[in-house]
Amino acid sequence: MDAFRRSSLAHVLAVSGAHIGYLVLGATYLLNKSKLSRKKANTIVIFTLLLFMSIAGFTPSVVRACIMGIIVQISHLFHKKSDVWTAIAFSLLIVLVQNPLNIHNLGLQLSYLGTIGIILFSRNIEKLLIKTNINKIIIKMIAVTFSAQVLIMPVVIYNFNVFSLTFFISNIVAMPLLGAIIIIGFMNIIVATIWLGLAEFIAIITNLLLECLILTATIGASLPFSNIIITTPSIAGIIAYFAIVGLTWCTARTS
Length: 255
What we know:
By secondary structure, the protein is mostly helical. The protein contains 10 helices and 2 strands, in the order H-H-H-H-H-H-H-E-H-H-E-H. The protein has helices spanning 2-6, 17-33, 38-55, 60-77, 84-98, 106-129, 136-160, 167-192, 196-222, 235-254; strands at 162-163, 228-229. Helix 8 runs antiparallel to helix 9 (196-222). It is globular.
């Protein structure tokens, strides 16, 4: 746990948007292979997300990600283009109607701020990096990681008094591992109900991937500047930070 925290990988241990995204990706792929109609496939994905919310205990970050995923699936059912801001606002409304005190939940704050950061900044960061010779997939992961950090950084510093300058290195390695672990893990659950021997073999692969993820966190935590201690910022300082980021984004958008 300490290694994951020091390497800025603690978010992979909390069920959030990345997990839901991989779940939808895996379910959609399997349903498309089954030759079901698009509407039936979308409907099954919706019920899968509802079931997953129930299994995960309706935590704010899970509800946020699942509601957004459900809205996307519903838009596909009615052949409409989904609006990400409507999905974010509606999911937040559902979370706060369920429990207004969730507004103080750190997981909720990090989940929404990270998602908004990705929406606002990832495309621009990709455009800046596309001029380099870096692989496009790596560019995408770097852009997503940096974009999320832009908005969650002050909240993390305020609550944990730590900041990492090497977070992007560990995240680039960890995110593909996380995707494989989630998709293969869900496949393993399904296979276990049919053929236990095959499930045990798949579990060996899953365990190896988990060991690689733990090793990534351990190495990431040992990198120089991976855990810089910072004093707790003031609320006024955090507000000023968000104001500067907002003004910078507006200026970049209009230029």
